[in-house]
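new request in #modeling-help
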Amino acid sequence: MPMHVLDRILRPLRRRPVTSRYPDAPPELPPAARGLPELDPSRCDGNAACVEACPTGAIRLGPTTWSLDAGACIFCGACARACVPAAIRLGHRIELAADQRDGLVTVRARSGPA
Amino acid sequence: MADQLGVPVGGVEAVAPDALAARVADTLAAGGRFVMLLGLDERSLGGDGLAVEAVATRVDGTLARFRAGLPLDAASYPSITPVVPAAHWDEREARDLLGIVPVGHPDPRRLVLHERWPRGYHPLRKDIPADAPPPIADRHFVPFEVHGEGVYQLPVGPIHAGIIEPGHFRFSAIGERVLHLDARLFFTHRGLEKLVEGRSFAAAAPVVERACGVCTVTHALAYAEAVERLASTIVPPRARWARVILAELERLYNHVGDLGNICAGIGFQPGVSRLGWLKEQLLRANDALTGHRYLTGIVAAGGLVADLEPLALAALPATLDAIGAELAGAVRAILRSEGVMSRLHGTGVVARDTAAALGALGVGARACGIDIDLRRDRPYAAYGELEVGVVTAAAGDVAARFHVRAQEARESLRLLREAFDRLPAGPVSVPLATLPEAGASALGAAEGPRGASWVWLRAGAGGTIDRLRLRSASFANWPVVAAAAPGNLVPDFPLINKSFELCYACTDR
C-alpha cells in the first residue's frame, strides 16, 4: 500500500474529535454567551426599569418578587442594560426546557420597594 | 444634494396614480433598478386616504421615489407589474395588507393573507388594532393546477420531513419533468410590520432583526441605516468597521452552510459533514465575539449595542485562517467529485433575462451574470473604503451558484482580515442626533448572504414608527426559484431550492 494512502487512512486517528461531549459534559460556552437573565436580589431596588425595557413583556415585578418568563424572553439583554444598580446580568443558563408552560417562569424573591 | 452620510438624497415625488407605471419604467429604462413598492395609510399623519409608493435606484445611486395618493373608498391604480414585473409580489402584498388594488395585475390571487383571512380585512390599515385577533373566514385554498393529458399534481408541504420552514410546493409534472411549480409561502405571517407601528426606534430593533434567523445583521444594518438617516446621525468609525466584520461573518457562515446544503440536496454526505463542522466553528466564533451564535442584539441605530469581545476579537484572525484552509480543501474535494458536479451542472438554469425581469438579487442574480452588489454599488458601513470583489458567473445553474458562493466566501475571509487590520479604536456608538419629524421617511439597505434587503421607514410623532416595510432578499428571489424549476426532474427540486437557500420567515414577516 502506498504511503500516502496509509497516511490518509490513519489521519483521523491522530486528530482530536471535532464533536463536543455535550450533554454528557457541561456545554462549552464562551464568556460572552447570553443565557437567561439572572437577578441578584440583594442589588435589586425595585425601580422596574427592566420591566419597562423588556421588549416582550417577559419580566414582572411584584411587591416581594421578580419573575421572568423564559418562554417570552428573547435574550436581548435590554433588561441588564437598563438596570441602574446592575442587579441583572445574562448568565449561562441555556437549558430551559420545561414540561409545563408554568415551568418556564422563574420567580425570585426580592426585598426592595415595589 | 447629499445628506450628512454622503449619499445623495432622493425626495418623494407625488405622481398621479395612472402615471406611476410609466415613471418607474422610465427610471428602469435609464439604467435604474427596482427596489420596492409599498402601500401606505396616510390617516395617521393627518391625511384622509391611502397611498402607494414605488422606489427605484437611479444609475448615480440616488433613489427615485414616486408616491400616488389614493382615496380610501376606491383605492386602486393601474398595476405597474405589466411593465415592471419585479413588482408583482409587492403589489399583491399591498392589496392584501392595505386593500390597495392594482388594476390589471396578471395574478389576482392572494399572496400574504391566506383564505382564512376574511375578505375586506386589511391588517395594515390604521383603523385595525394591532392586538385584536383577526376574524377567521371559512374559505379554502384553491391550488393552481395545470390540466391536460398526462399532467399530474404533486403537492409537497407545507409540513416537510426536515427542520425547514413551511411552504406548499405544488408541482404539475409530466412524467418526471416539472411543467410548472406554484410555490405558496406566507405560512409564517406574524404581523411584524404592524407590531412595530407606534414603537420607538430602539424598541422596534429586536423585532426587525428577528424577522428571520439567518439574515440578522443584514436586516439590523438596513434598519439602522434608515433610522440613522432619519435622525441625521453619523456612526463612529470603529462601529462602521465592526459592522463590516459582523456583516461578513454573517455572509461567511451562511455561504459555508449553504455550500453544505447543496451537498445535502444530492446526498453527498462528506461535503455535508465537513461544511457543517466549519459552519459550527463560525457560529461559535460569532458567539464568542457577540454573545450570540446568530449575531442578534449587536447592531443598533447609532453604532453597536456593545463592543466586540476583545479576547475573541484577538483570536479571530487565527480562527479565520484555519477555517479558510479547511474551506478551500472541502470545496476542492467537492469540485473534484464528478458524481456531484454532474448533478449540479445544467440543473435549475435561470435565464439572465428572467432573473432581471423578476428582480433577482444576490447570489441568484450574480450566478446568471447580473453584476450587482450593494457593498460596491451603494456602500454602507465601511464598505466605501474597501475594494469589494464582486463574483459573477454566466451559466445560471446550480453549479454557478455553488461557484459564486464558494468564491464569495473566500472574498469574505479576505474582507474580514482587512477589516480586522483596519479596525480603529474609539467608541462604538453615539446617541441619535435629532428626533425626526412626523412624516419623514427614509430607506436603508444592506447586502446580505441572499442579496439586498431594504427597509423603508417613516417616523410618526415623538420618535415612533409610523410605517416600516422590510423587503428581504428572499422576498425578491422566491419567484426566481419557481422559474428555475420547470424542465427539471422533480427529485432535483430540493437541490435547486437549496442552491438559492432562501428564507421563508423574512419573506413573510
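bot summary: Residues 16 and 82 of chain A are 43 Å apart (CA to CA).
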